[in-house]
């Protein structure tokens, strides 16, 4: 069942919900049209599925449209996505043409009706071509880290980006200097969804039993897909160092990325490194294993995210929300979530990770304090209600250029 | 019995919410940091000296500003971090004056110490601006009892607005609570006590408790 806005009051307080209603009231009658490239699958669709109904319940006329495109177009946009992340991709003129032609088709067929047109990611970016014909404000929401992109692809997109009135990025390190306003709005987790809701001890125990884990021995967990950038092998090495002094179990749980051909290779390597070690549990989880992930996080003594590169790192947010002490690399959006020694520990190496995991296992009071701080930090900054509030402020900012706005 | 004094003009509780705007500017060493601190808009200095109060308001209130935190965590200059952390924000009546003090601490350090360390890639200091949205809440108080009751239930954003933002960013010099208590209720002693609180060494909830305690004592006295 989809949660309603008042369901969040016990989690964030009535005042927070009242504030959302007050802000939304200032936007009454404003049509906010979200546009992205898919209605299902992927983080953006997941966010919009939650956001749009809540905005509507608050009284904002939020709508959501999806651009059309064939396989060829999405193959090109996948390459764009990788190139913007800094990966080398060969992109031919024909591919750029495919992207532009598809954009033209959508310009002809899509009904653009928003007072605010909120375009998500690069796929629909050329819709900005309609800007001059309309009296709307345009926002480009970039969910990708474009700090070190392929210069050709970024150079191709830049003239479109800079025609928008404002842009939004998830972390300061994800962007570069642009001629338009850039707002910082971090993503969020939904405290009421299956992956984050409270679970009974019975459910947690059931999941541990299902995966053959011993509830009496401390569990160290990393949840992430099997990808070199998540450094699962590094986690195993760190775990082996920890276990020289402290008895514990390691859980590496996640799916394989279907669009990543290296994923199977990584999983094979991880399995080889873990072979014969009964304390290491490699769990390949199918999509939709939200309750299992939730239970594994809740059953852990320490949660690790030893990524070499990271997006915002929402698995860290999820673990912090569950009050868990986290050891994570200082990459991507993780330093926004963890202030070293205040709300978790930041590591830079296998040895460092091992030392910190050991510290936390041996000093449960310290671990508990970090976990409590981490949970409060998430409550204040990374829940869906904060995300909603910042989107409402973002919409309002389009009508005000000053730094102090009196509503 | 005369009862507690009632104000002619009520205290109207406002609140403020903020949105962070990226400037695209970043520093990887101390020289770049100080040179940008000198030139960025005041809203940037305000953000980096105040957002910790709200984003980390559950913690023991440290570190007090982003500059101190970054200088220690990313560059490892502990002495300078301590000097920056000890800059007493309460002493300053304007962002401009606060900025000058931060700059002079770093310049002084650079004069006497080599400062060649650079932050790791991705751990640079990113300059961010605070855009504030100020609005009235439905709460207003005519006397100390009402005032104390409302302090207990308004959001921390409201307390934050009247204690910090109004005084420093809007350059009123004194926090709004003290101003009203002094002007409308003639409670000079209470106004002074609130004015002397160092809000930068309390958590936001701690500050709320401290304010509530002070107001309740004076409200009882006023009612006698």
Looking at this protein, list some descriptive labels.
heterodimer, A: alpha/beta, Rossmann fold, six-stranded parallel sheet, 15 helices, 13 strands, 43% helix, B: 224 residues, alpha+beta, 2 domains, 10 helices, 54% helix, 15% strand, elongated
Question: How would you sum up this structure, described in words?
Answer:
The complex is a heterodimer of chains A (407) and B (224). Chain A is of the alpha/beta class and 407 residues long. Chain A has helices at 9-12, 14-25, 43-57, 71-84, 93-109, 151-161, 201-210, 232-243, 263-274, 290-299, 314-321, 334-337, 350-362, 364-381, 384-397; strands at residues 31-36, 61-66, 116-120, 137-141, 166-169, 181-184, 219-223, 249-254, 280-284, 302-305, 326-329, 345-347, 404-406. Chain A has 2 domains: 5-188 and 384-397, 3-Layer(aba) Sandwich (Rossmann fold); 201-381, Glycogen Phosphorylase B (Rossmann fold, 3-Layer(aba) Sandwich). Helix content of chain A is 43%, strand content 15%. In chain A, helix 8 links the parallel strand 7 (219-223) and strand 8. In chain A, helix 11 (314-321) packs across helix 14 (364-381). The longest helix of chain A has 18 residues, at 364-381. Chain B has 2 domains: 17-128, no CATH class; 139-223, no CATH class. Chain B has 10 helices and 2 strands, in the order E-H-H-H-H-H-E-H-H-H-H-H. Chain B has helices spanning 30-39, 42-55, 66-73, 78-85, 95-112, 144-153, 156-169, 176-185, 188-196, 204-223; strands spanning 11-27, 125-141. In chain B, strands 1-2 form a two-stranded antiparallel ribbon. Chain B is elongated. The relative contact order of chain B is 0.20. The A-B interface holds A 13, 15-16, 19, 22-23, 169, 172-173, 175-178, 181-185, 330-332, 335, 339-340, 342-343, 348, 373, 376-377, 380-381, 389-390, 393-394, 396-397, 403-407 and B 15, 17-22, 24-26, 41, 43, 54-59, 69, 73, 120, 122-124, 126, 128-135, 153-155, 157, 169-170.
